[in-house]
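Table S7 (text form). Paired inputs.
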Amino acid sequence: MVELKIKEYDSSLKDKWDEFVLLSSINGTFLQTKNFLDYHNGRFDDCSLFIYKGSNTIVAVVPACTLYDEGRRVFSSHCGSTFGGIVIAEEFYDIEHVEAMIDTLEKYLYDNGYKEVVLKCTSDIFSRHNTNLLYYFLFQKGYTPYDELSCYVDFKNYNEDIISNFSASRRRGYKHSLRNDLRFAQLSEDSEVEKFYDVLCGNLQKFNAEPVHSLAELLEFKNERLADIVRFYGVFNGEDIVAGSMVFLFGNAVFHTQYLAADQECLQLYPMNFLDANLIETAYKSGFKFCSFGTSTREHGKVLNKKLAEFKEGFGTEFGVNKTYVKHL
């Protein structure tokens, strides 16, 4: 078997890490770059790893953090990213090397006192190549898979007349929204993003939840760290923002809605139907392959928010799964 070795990440290797993720890997995105993950600024106990062949050839990286479960050390895909897992070099995506990556990683984790490993893999629409070989070896080596259900529009299978793809109820809702004085626009001013954030916080209150990101972090994304990657969109009723979304742009492939929210006092205007229709149209006209609406599950995919999933389904979406693999060492 091919011999690989592990090297722990440190900040002096940031440029090398990010270059590998964005230019050499089959399943890396900006979400696994240190440019993105570093915004957490010490919030997590980072234990990210390089996997090398020889002295200086990177075959994979593993963005990760250490968690503790009743005193047990857990090696987890980085909690600051939606997904990550093992990010693999295109050159070494083959049976011999992928198997060796997993074996080498497991030995390192076992030798360093980890009792469990959690790998949240990059889903297919965000990857430049399917990672079925990785999934197979994780299965073969005793990892337990958890699937989260996601919804996305595949424009290859979508009619150019956007509304014709909707279910009858989504079409009715969209037509109702057109009776109101609603306007869709990209949010360019910080003050507009702040209004959207207020709507988002109000929307999450019904679930006793808060946004993952603070307003300051969203503005830092917009103006500095992710200026070419993040977009904000809003639905206006007069001067008021009644719905909105934060969108991540994954190259020219995926237009991903990271946040979707509506003012709970204005639902009679059908702002979400209006918002989603315009987001899909924006993605289509901008040449993206997919428009992603994210997952509708929780508790490792065991619980489905059926109402939310069916709402997304009504826009003519297809279904995907985000795979997480867990193993006790």
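Next pair, protein 2 of 2.
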Amino acid sequence: MRIPSKRKNKTETLKEVIDKVLRINSMHSKLDEVEVVLAWKEVFGEVVNKKTRRLMLQSDGTLLVSLDSGPLKEEFNHEKEKVVKMLNAHLKKDVVKGVRIR
């Protein structure tokens, strides 16, 4: 006698399975934050990265940026939308929804 399996016969890619596990364990946002921090340095260069004190990606997609330079803060405040577009283009996905400069 064969016992019917409760498992559906749906095949999933490895990427889908990993995404599901990350979502269930609330790890997606932390991985996104790591990717954004790495992208920050690549997109804006070493000079800006050295003047960056802290980067934090909130769960709603807001990137909190603490900068050491007043003029740099002013420039980034005027170009928030551009910063979002540049980071998301580099990451090839919409992770950053907004930017708040401190």
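The chain has a mean pLDDT of 87.
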